Structures are given as C-alpha cells and as structure tokens.
Amino acid sequence: MIQSIEITKEFPASRERVVLLELLEIVRLLKAEEIDSVICGGWVPFLKELARHCHTSHSMSLDIDLLLRQKARERESIDRVKYLLSKSLNFERSNDDLFRYEKSIDGNLVQLDLMADLPRTTTESVKRFHGLSTTLDMCLIDGAENLGNHTETIRINCREGESVETFELTLPDAVGFLMLKTEVCRYREKQKDPYDIYYYCRYSEDTNVIRQSLINSIQEPAVRNTVSSIRRMFSHEDSKWVEMILDHMGVTEDNDRDQEARMIVRTLGRVIEGMPGE
Known about the structure:
With 278 residues, the chain is α/β, with parallel strands linked by helices. The protein has nine helices and ten strands. Strands 2, 3, 4, 5, 6, 7 and 8 form a seven-stranded mixed beta sheet that branches. A hairpin with a 2-residue loop joins strand 9 (151-160) and strand 10 (163-172). Helix 2 (43-53) runs parallel beside helix 5, helix 4 packs across helix 7 and helix 7 (221-234) runs antiparallel to helix 9 (254-272). The longest helix is centred in the C-terminal third of the chain and has 19 residues, at 254-272.
C-alpha cells in the first residue's frame, strides 16, 4: 500500500521546505519523461516519518541524492536528463564535483547528486555515461548494485488553497535503505550515516516491519551482510558507531548519553532479533 502525506502552506518555511519542493519538481519532470530514479540518502528517513506521522524531527542533510537506474542510463535517456537539469530545472554543474548540480532558490543552495547503481571499484568512484549528444557523470553508490526490487513508493499531496498536486516518489524500502547505509559505513565514518540508520529504525518504520522484511530476504547475500553489519555496529553501548550517533544528536550529559545509548542498542537489537549471523 502506498503511504501518503500532505504538504501545505503550514509546512514550516525553511531551507528543508525549499529543497523538498524542488525535489518534488525534479520527481515530477522525471516521471513525465519516464526516467527510472530513486531518492536515496537522508531524505528517506525524513519522508518515511512524514508518511507515518505527518511530522519529522530528523536531522537531515540538505542535498538530494538521485539514483538513476539502468534504463535511465541509456543513451537517449542521458540526453533527456541532461536537458531537464540544465533547461527545465536550471541547474548548473558544480565546480567541485562532476556528479553534483547546484542552483540557488531564494538564497538557499540546492544541491543534486547524480548516482548510479553500479559497484564502486578500487580505481573508479565516478563514471561518465554518454548520451547521443551529451554526457553525464554519476557517483557509483556503495551497495546499490544489490538494491534490486527493494524499493517502495510514497505519495505526497501538495496543497495550495483548493488545488492539490500529487507526486509519487520511489525510495529504498527498509531492506534497501539499511543495505545502502550499512554498506557506505564500510568506506567512511561519517556521523550522519549511523544516525540515519538509528533514526529510520526508531521513528521512520516499525521495527517489526523492518525485521520481517529482512527475514523475507535473508537468503540474499547482501541482506545477510547487512544484518551482520548491524550486529557488529550496534551490539554494545560503547561502540564507536553508537558514540557517533550521540555526538551527531548533540547529547552531552553522561546520564542522557547512557540512556540514549541503551535505546540505540535496544532498537537495532529488535531489528535483527532471532536472525542468523555471527
């Protein structure tokens, strides 16, 4: 069942709102062109909790991670995506990263990262894809080659007075999100990544739903690796990953850190309870 949320004028005016509305416009244009894409990264727990509770306290990143799947990387599709970015959406390519596009809206910087679901190699983390008349560079996202059908759709109704426009966004589902986030943790130690894992499992989806989804796919090697990673990262309250979450959340008092650390271990423990592994 597609989960649905409604965004109105009451949605707080902030940079988050600016980026969210831009994200919806990107999705609308891609859908119209039948471009196969998935919204990844910090938007996933943000949007999932909105869908469940119509509010969110997620401390999100403000860039848009757009995963372009195989069909979207065909030569004719590359030309259409490039045209949408530069003409319809008025993005310009970043001077710092070849796969990043940027623009300013009301003084707010909006950044869009293009990603491909191909395995990263030891020599290549960004790959150039050729269209019929142009090219696009995309970042190879860790673990995305195993994403498969681990996606879901969220519907957003954007209301302006009596007018309502509906958008459908494809996101990684619980299995897909945890697979991507635990995989990226193998290659970098950024506080936001374990925080996103914890937040998703505590607020964005019911732990019983997450656990059952993992069980249903446990025959997949990538899913078993995901479960093993969660067990390794979050089995102990003094784990460096737990400490990273507490630091990202700004929890400073010893008693508060101890209490939150117990909640982190308990939450992630429920997600993988009873599953095979080390």
